[in-house]
Amino acid sequence: MNESKPEVLAVCISPGGVPKVPIEGAHVSEKGLEGDGRDHDKHWKPTRAVSIQDVELIDQLCSEGYKLGHGTMGENLTVRNLDVQNMTSGTKLRFSGGLEVELTDVRKPCFVLDKIDPQLQHDVVGRCGFMARVTKPGMVRPGETIDVDQSLSNGGDAG
Fold first, then answer.
1. Quick one: which H or E segment has residue 2?
2. Which domain does 59 fall in, by range?
3. pLDDT over 90 at 39, yes or no
């Protein structure tokens, strides 16, 4: 992991679809971020309550010619120094504001990315961030730091 502590750069929601827009913070329940359009049957499952993406990936895609920003690809949380792309399902993230999530599935690119660029959906396969379930509801705001706990991966429980 990088020398700097992982942190939240942006908290993003939308009434549905992309882009999501950065906000000052949100309450997060087992259903996801309050006010986010993911709270409907088509997209919502407990294991897909929150989407997380590294800003380093956004920066890389921008260097490849895409015009992207926080929330552009539909992520709820844009983070720095986390390297979520190289984490595994079961990894717990504890945010300094009290929220806790567990990574569940690698994000798959959404077809609506075609609106940004017809090639984008293809170019982000396998590098689209992670989905997570909420293990401890709470608030999340930009600037919060993140602790990573892999000790509970693969079925452990924090009794």
1. none
2. 7-149
3. no
